[in-house]
Amino acid sequence: MIKRYDSDKMKQLVFNIYQAYGFSDDESEKVAHTLIYTDLHGIESHGVQRMVMYDHFIQNGKIRVKSQPEIVKQTDVSAVVDAHFGLGQLNGIYSMEVAIKKAKEHGVGIVTTRHSGHYGIAGYYANMAAEQGLIGMSSTNSRPAMLPTHATKAFVGTNPIAFAMPAKPHTFIFDAATSTVPQGKIEVYRKLEKDLPALWVAKNGDEPVYDHNDTHDLDLLRDPEANVGLAPLGGVSEATGSHKGFGLGIIVEVFTSILSMGNTSTEISPADLQVGPSQSFIAIDPAIFGDKDQIVNRFSEYLQNIRELPAIPGKTIYVHGDKEAIAYADRKKNGIEIDDHTLEEIMTIAQRLGVDYKPFIG
Amino acid sequence: MIKRYDSDKMKQLVFNIYQAYGFSDDESEKVAHTLIYTDLHGIESHGVQRMVMYDHFIQNGKIRVKSQPEIVKQTDVSAVVDAHFGLGQLNGIYSMEVAIKKAKEHGVGIVTTRHSGHYGIAGYYANMAAEQGLIGMSSTNSRPAMLPTHATKAFVGTNPIAFAMPAKPHTFIFDAATSTVPQGKIEVYRKLEKDLPALWVAKNGDEPVYDHNDTHDLDLLRDPEANVGLAPLGGVSEATGSHKGFGLGIIVEVFTSILSMGNTSTEISPADLQVGPSQSFIAIDPAIFGDKDQIVNRFSEYLQNIRELPAIPGKTIYVHGDKEAIAYADRKKNGIEIDDHTLEEIMTIAQRLGVDYKPFIG
């Protein structure tokens, strides 16, 4: 069952747990902010629900609590960060802060980060730049999940692209896997016992898997050697544009693992403690092109014109960021949504670490 | 009927025609190079076949022969170019040269160009950077063609994204409309009297149009007020990822029209002589991140691993740029493919301009 919990209280609990792991106050505050931000924007798959995975990685040493991200090469407009397998969210915030500083000083900042960890939603980091009046972009690679067009084996990660740009009444945020859906969406449908509504998963390269009871094929999604994988954005045939999603996934790989000399999708194994995903962070100051207010106003007007187009009866036209803004207003007032199973996981972690969770979940 | 023509001879004919319009030798050489390059790479829709459209625009003054692109604002890493409605290819080459120069000096160059013209394939400009060992990107907006998710009226252009990166045995080139297919693909299928093989066109927001005889709906594709449009990459429903192609189209709009304060998709009308598409050109030097050779070798190996994956029986796994490399080898040896109708159009133009075409089409 899903219940609502006050976001400020839950944030304090996350803070206390991360402090108990040995993270500093500043670090714990940052992690708590990313996770609660994510739940507040209605993206429950990547919020506190992920704490159990991170807990597992902190315990087995895949996430190294005392690691600090380090700039190993830089210019006025670029940096390569080696994250030394620290917590992904902290590496992400650090790397985007570097990109933002460079963009404010020199117009552009491009940072590529290796040996990182799972960093939650890419849109969080893109939005950091937008909050400072900049264009922000971020991507991460991930273990093999997506089928290259005509291949029967997954190779490319779900490799999301996030892009944020200041706009009124709220920031434009695009944050999308380059596969048709991310891995987590399949799990959500399986938990809900619903069949997949479109060609999200294919076996043998182009045979759709829809049945949520097809445990054989769906379980194999996590196995890079299996003949099952996620469809790229654009499906599995060139007629529907499969090669486009697949190609966008490769472009993400360039900005993350290739430029940083980090681990590529096929080199990332969840079990291997010596590898971690690679990520990219870009900030661009619109002021290098023109008057920032004029640019933002023109963009806001462009987006508003889209919202006001004639729509299919009963449907709403959303611009990217609209749904998240609606979710935020709701969650801020009524609490974030946490299912009982996730809550139990968090309580178990807290208990083990000697953190009193009771005051925060009442 | 389609026949083969020697690419060097045809390039000379194009050169002579553009010289006769009043373009300088240098300009005529550049235009001829872009058009023949495109045909050599098997992208006939955007090669010499486009000369009749440009001819029309040169005659009615939409393309201004004597205009020169001008940098109206710049920093070390950026420029805004006003193209003053000169020929798109010349604006594109100029703008990408500016981006390349900045990337060589400062690591990154981002150029956004307004009041340009139809510039052919975006990949040409991305490849200019790759030929100099850099990462290249280019995009253009275009008049309304793509349906925003749930909208019944087109609004966003087909807004392609091109990305090129040096690799062995040849450059990785991604060049794709953010709609499932570009407008030209529909025309090709109609000419071939073949039904559309996938959801490329929708009416009333989400009703597929497949019938190539459906002139009513397909003719309306060019009418921004009609209830017909191209599907975004990802189709017309959120389940298939429609919002992703739609969002990528908006991102292209930011880098082209929004940052340059140029004309947005809805402001571009083919009939209006005072408007033109907006474009973007990005060059990034991989050397700011690490050893260029090492990066290129690692990327080449990554791509080769994809080519060697197990494939659907009878299908080949292509990496972006492979098909173009195959077409290039063929056309370079056996000639570029030009249909009789296009050849006739070129002969008519040559005749009017007093250019002797006979020596070049034998």
Automatic annotation (TrEMBL), chains A, B:
It holds the Pfam family Ldh_2. It comes from the Bacteria. One of its GO terms (molecular function) is (2R)-2-hydroxyacid dehydrogenase (NADP+) activity. InterPro entries: Mal/L-sulf/L-lact_DH-like_ah, Mal/L-sulf/L-lact_DH-like_NADP, Mal/L-sulfo/L-lacto_DH-like_sf, Malate/L-lactate_DH-like. Coiled coil: none annotated. The keyword Transferase does not apply. Keywords: Oxidoreductase. Its EC number is 1.1.1.272. Gene3D superfamilies: 1.10.1530.10, Hypothetical oxidoreductase yiak, domain 2 (3.30.1370.60). Belongs to the LDH2/MDH2 oxidoreductase family. This is (R)-2-hydroxyacid dehydrogenase.
